[in-house]
Amino acid sequence: QVQLVESGGGLVQAGGSLRLSCQVSGSIFRLNTMGWYRQAPGKQRELVANTASGGSTTYADSVKGRFTISRDNTKNTAVYLQMNSLKPEDTAVYYCNAVGSDFLWRPLNYWGQGTQVTVSS
User: Fold this and answer.
1) Residue 28: what are its φ and ψ, rounded to 5°?
2) With 23 labelled, which of 9, 35, 87, 108 sits at a CA distance of 20 to 30 A?
3) Is the pLDDT confidence value at 95 over 80?
């Protein structure tokens, strides 16, 4: 059974930094994209950043230049989000996501339980 476990959230002052980690346990036959989403109270879940197996990355406009996503390519089982210059509007629950497929090319989509990031002004 596949599980995604996030860590690294917490409370930080504006301008500070946090590093989120997501560890994948279990086996995904064909793991493609790994990424981070966030959901603030009263808002929809939104993409923060993702990285494809080929190395390409995508960032939300609101985090470009401040956040960096990276992936453990040796074991392909972890993804990280370095968050710098944090702003109060970055406050949200951050979710790890992994997308892939099984040996029959059926799509697979996994989510972590979420980790709270709170940025105080």
Assistant:
1) -110, 120
2) 87
3) yes
